[in-house]
Design a protein that fits this description.
Elements lengths: L6 H4 L6 H36 L6 H10 L4 E2 H6 L8 H10 L3 E5 L7 E5 L1 H23 L5 H25 L1
Antiparallel strand pairs: 1-3, 2-3
Length: 173
Amino acid sequence: MSIHTDLDEVGTTQLPGARSVAFMDSYLDALNLVERLHRLLLDVIKDEFERVGLLEINPVQALLLFNVGDNEVTAGELKSRGYYQGSNVSYNLKKLVEAGYMHHQRSEIDRRSVRVRLTEKGRGVHVLVSRLFRTHAEGLMDRGVLDQKGVEDITASLRRVERYWTEQIRYIY
């Protein structure tokens, strides 16, 4: 679904002044860009995995392995720590355990809780994705696409939007 889909229903005329309309247009463009960048990131990971012949896991699972890294976490912590953004975490965990990328163990204290960590095979994927991201970071700097300040500015802006949205969700409840 495109973010612009229901713009007519919202009606930009509800916003006072041309400045607000311009801001709304820029805001929607930024939202679309964030969405496209995430999909593009998954495509970049997929292409790298195809290049090296790693075809048994998908890019979402690869990002999960990358984000877990050296940590041992519960399935619930994967979402609360921001390691996993999807809605089907249990499916992806099951697939990664079955394929030998993650190890899972029931908690001795709370048998309902499962702790997960990477196996050596999972660490290999973590290293592969780390190298890919390092190569991209170097390329962005070397080609003058972004510098340290640019990345810090983008990150700070996105964190402010994240805080705003989080406050909006809390306000609803």
